[in-house]
Amino acid sequence: MAMWGGRFAAGTDQLVAQLSESVSYDRRLYAHDVRQSIAHVRMLAKQGIVTDADADACVDGLRRIQADIESGAFGAWDPALEDVHMNIESRLTKNIGVSGAKLHSARSRNDQVATDLRLYLREEIDRLTLLVRRLQRALVEQADAHCATLMPGFTHLQHAQPVVFGHYLLAYCEMLDRDAGRLRDCRERMDFCPLGSGAMASTTLPIDRFFTAEQLGFVHGPCRNSMDAVSDRDFAVELLSAISVSMMHLSRLSEDLIFASSQEASWLELGDAFCTGSSLMPQKKNPDVCELTRGKTGRVYGDLMALLTVMKGLPLCYNRDMQEDKEPVFDAVDTYRALLQIYADMIDSIKLRAERMRAAASDPALMATDLAEWLVRRGVPFREAHHRVGALVGYCARQSKALNALTLEEMRHSVPEADEECLRLFDPERSVQARDVFGGPAPNQVKRQVQFWRSQTWYP
Ligand code: ARG
């Protein structure tokens, strides 16, 4: 007989039971469920709702169940008991008798599951944040090693202007820093305790919600509205949005690394441990981690969409639809965590072909803007300067000549002010050095940003 079976004359249909069970995946919440139940029963005793002896028996019994789950002695979870909550409660009552049957006083699975999920996600966010920091450190250390390593920067996937590899890497460090901020914001907003909201209208029993919220470390105390508390999953939606944004960043970085390790670019090589071979072509070394990151980004977006769609249009308060929150949430968290765990080591493993990168950055066309800015320094309005240098580039294209192969004479057709200095502008080293602006790619500016990251409290 189900724990809620009192009003039923017949048992649940076998297929309905299969459809309804969630213990096959929500059992991962067992430690949070035990922790919550311990706080809850202590509160019940403090308020005189159960005796101290009942509470002690429950606390011991719950601890034993946790140990049994962890040692394997708990045995199989029972799908007929639907979820992790009823599996644990039913085992408790089986083990300790009537004291166990008092545990669920003033509680519903609706506030219970909302509390477990927040406890679980708070912890996951802390873990994910450490991994984001670890990846940022990997980027900063590579950036430090490559403060002066030239590469072409792109717009429209066309060579644009020379930068240094360190500057490029620190762009991702910035994105990940905002990602860590989004995780922090989301954790902060979810730090309220639903427990005591009951099914949706709290309870007639004299509970102390502030006590349980404090026991469970919810910094803002109990949720202020019982109907909201059992209905709200926006903390999970918010987390999945934050993870989706960060996955988008990892996906873009992956795409860049795939390109940079292609034969066309051949600018870098990823460590063997992060690539795989082909079952057919012996020569292949494929950037699968990057490709899987790109692919799994789509999957995580799907998790976010699934959750948003489950929640859309649900009437207040709890609806069983909401049980469908867990699989997308767990999947997104697991996927993101798995990739982060790999990614930092993969960044460490990058071996650059600095000469090839430098060669790509040395195309004098990439310094056309430098010549226009040289003219601006001599008082030529930028639009005019842009036009004249454009004409010069057109001339070069027609003559099949590189900009740095022009004679002063030729240059003066379009740029009458040109002098010997102009002929020396087409040096990529000089070009990046000259971009000595806060946030720019000059090596000393990149060093400065490396120092900034190293001075962060999370940096070891
Ligand atoms: N397993 C359920 C969930 O994950 C717990 C809450 C069930 N409440 C209920 N009244 N059926 O949402």
From TrEMBL:
<dbReference type="InterPro" id="IPR000362">
    <property type="entry name" value="Fumarate_lyase_fam"/>
</dbReference>
<dbReference type="Pfam" id="PF00206">
    <property type="entry name" value="Lyase_1"/>
</dbReference>
<comment type="similarity">
    <text>Belongs to the lyase 1 family. Argininosuccinate lyase subfamily.</text>
</comment>
<dbReference type="Pfam" id="PF14698">
    <property type="entry name" value="ASL_C2"/>
</dbReference>
<feature type="domain" description="Fumarate lyase N-terminal">
    <location>
        <begin position="6"/>
        <end position="302"/>
    </location>
</feature>
<dbReference type="InterPro" id="IPR022761">
    <property type="entry name" value="Fumarate_lyase_N"/>
</dbReference>
<protein>
    <recommendedName>
        <fullName>Argininosuccinate lyase</fullName>
    </recommendedName>
</protein>
<dbReference type="InterPro" id="IPR029419">
    <property type="entry name" value="Arg_succ_lyase_C"/>
</dbReference>
<keyword id="KW-0456">Lyase</keyword>
<dbReference type="GO" id="GO:0004056">
    <property type="term" value="F:argininosuccinate lyase activity"/>
</dbReference>
<dbReference type="GO" id="GO:0042450">
    <property type="term" value="P:L-arginine biosynthetic process via ornithine"/>
</dbReference>
<comment type="pathway">
    <text>Amino-acid biosynthesis; L-arginine biosynthesis.</text>
</comment>
<dbReference type="GO" id="GO:0005829">
    <property type="term" value="C:cytosol"/>
</dbReference>
<dbReference type="InterPro" id="IPR020557">
    <property type="entry name" value="Fumarate_lyase_CS"/>
</dbReference>
<dbReference type="InterPro" id="IPR024083">
    <property type="entry name" value="Fumarase/histidase_N"/>
</dbReference>
<dbReference type="InterPro" id="IPR008948">
    <property type="entry name" value="L-Aspartase-like"/>
</dbReference>
<keyword id="KW-0963">Cytoplasm</keyword>
<feature type="domain" description="Argininosuccinate lyase C-terminal">
    <location>
        <begin position="366"/>
        <end position="433"/>
    </location>
</feature>
<dbReference type="InterPro" id="IPR009049">
    <property type="entry name" value="Argininosuccinate_lyase"/>
</dbReference>
